[in-house]
Amino acid sequence: MQRTPLLGALALAVPAVLSAQSTTAITARRMLDLRGGRMIENPVVVVQGDRIVSVGTSAPAGVTPLDLGDVTLLPGFMDLHTHLGYDLEGDWAMRPVTETAVDAALRAVPNARKTLLAGFTTVREVGEEGGVDVSLMKAIDAGGIVGPRIVPAREAIGITGGHCDVTGFRPGVAEGGTGVADGVDGVLKAVRYQIKYGAKVIKVCATAGVLSFEGPVGAQQLSDEELRTIVDEASRHGLKVAAHAHGADGILAAVRAGVASIEHGSMINDQIIALMKQKGTYLVPTTYLADRINMAALPPRIRAKAEYVIPLAKENLRRAIKAGVRIAFGTDAGVYPHGENAHEFGALVDRGMSPLEALRTATLNAADLLGVDDRGEIAAGKLADLVAVPGNPLVDIHVTERVSWVMKGGVVVSSTR
Fold it and tell me: Which residue of the set 203, 240, 382, 408 is catalytic?
């Protein structure tokens, strides 16, 4: 079969990986038991195929040893708010009328690799044009591309002219994608369309946003009835809903509608905090970008929104953490350079979390929000998704930014040993 230019480019992006032995005993100086909140000295983690078969202090006879040395062993991290095909490089604001989904796919391939090598073995892709995330998921699962496990949303659902629509261009230019919908019938069809073509989670834009040209950043966009329809329809298909929401009215409407998570949550208040705790709604705060976003890369209108909302988001996250809202790890990767995902841990600690709590957001909490029980901790029966970091992350959370070894599904994909 003749290879197309795109397939050839993707094939060249695949680096060599080290195949897992049939059974391997992994040893390290320390291992963090995230559920128990304790550090275990000199652990032995036995991996067979893509699963952990035992965790103890001695290796079975005849098993291939793999000593990682003076590191801390952790479960693979999960980032539940990524955009692998996106970045703020060049004239990014004009991409909707100068590029196609193929361009996003070509960006996504190296970004997926960077993300995995940074220790993130699972990501939730919350909005990619034309099903790029679904195709990338399939290519990674087939072994043709190196990257994390992907939970795709396809195109985010939002109103005409809203944050999930392409705005700022004259009529007839870049008119709406498959996620642009209005009214109960419109959003119902949009949910079904995303599911038909591979979505494993539904992303909605409950409010206006920052990196778009529409109006006030906090304005509610999807109506209460539209939000309820989306959640009800997604639930019938066994999918959860993640709601982009900055403003208080839209956050409150989304929580009342039953979304599983609020993304960003910049203007969260005490009433919302109480309701989120009552309903068990997760907050995915994407707070590292507040310290890292390149303001110089933003058009003036968008920059003004960012400068307004970022200080509010940081302060309100501190309130949410102090109040005990459930937090799951998400970064909005692409708004900052891909591969820096682990810096979110330090940002969470800066906003008031303990290092242990911050690590749980990307492991136990992330697995709970995803609705999976096969990852998020180092235990028998779980996927062999493991990372190693130098030093002790309970003492210095920033060691998570220096991942030295990554295993995904029993295969070593990165090692600086």
Answer: 203
- Is 332 one of the catalytic residues? yes
Q: Provide the Cα torsion 98, 115, 346, 56; round to 10°.
A: 160
3-state secondary structure of 300: helix
Q: Which DSSP helix (H) or strand (E) runs through 66?
A: strand 64-67
- CA distances for 160 relative to 172, 257, 355, angstroms: 13, 21, 41
Tokens representing 337 are 């350079």
**pTM higher than the cut 0.85:** yes
Listed as own residue / partner, the contacts of 230-235 with beta carbons closer than 8 Å and 24 or more positions apart are 230/157, 230/187, 230/188, 230/191, 230/202, 230/204, 230/257, 231/257, 231/258, 231/259, 233/188, 233/191, 233/192, 234/191, 234/195, 234/202
Alpha carbon 273 to its chain's center: 22
pLDDT in tens, 213-256: 887 888 999 999 999 999 999 999 999 999 999 999 999 999 99
Neighbours of 95 (CB within 10 A): 18
**Which one is predicted more confidently, 125 or 11?**
125
Are β-strands 411-415 and 77-82 bridged in parallel, bridged antiparallel, or unpaired? unpaired
DSSP per-residue codes, 151-191: EE--SPBB-TTSTTS--SS-TTSS---TTB--HHHHHHHHH
Work out the angle between the directed axes of helices 183-196 and 224-236 (0-180°, nearest 10). Answer: 30
Catalytic residue among 332, 382, 385, 408: 332
pLDDT of amino acid 6: 38
203 is catalytic: yes
Residue 14 has what pLDDT? 41
pLDDT tens, position by position, 378-388: 999 999 999 99
